[in-house]
Amino acid sequence: MLTQLSINNYALINQLSIDFSSGLSIITGETGAGKSILLGALGLVLGNRVDLSSLKDTSKKCVVEARLDIANYNLNDFFNEVDLDYESETIIRREILPSGKSRAFVNDTPVRLSVLNELRTKLIDVHSQHQTLQLSDNSFQFSILDALAKNKEKIASYKRGYAKLNQLKKELQELEAVQKEANQQYEYNLHLFNELEEANLKVDEQEELEEKLEKLNNIEDIKLNLSEALEISVNEEIGIQNLLNTLENRLLKIASFSKDYQELSERVTSVKIEIDDVVTELENANENVDFNPNEIEELNDRLQLIYNLQKKHTVSTNQELIKVLEDLSEKVSQVENAEETINNKQKEIDDVAGKLDKLAGLITKSRVASIPKLTKELQFLLSELGMENARFSIKIKPTKSYFSNGKDELEFLFSANKGGSFGELKKVASGGELSRIMLSVKKVLSENTQLPTIIFDEIDTGVSGEVSNKIAAIMQQMGKHMQVIAITHLPQIASKGQSHYKVFKKEVKGVTTTNLKQLTTEERIKEIAEMLSGKDISDSALTHAKELLSL
Question: What residues make up the domain containing 41?
Answer without folding.
Answer: 1-128+458-519
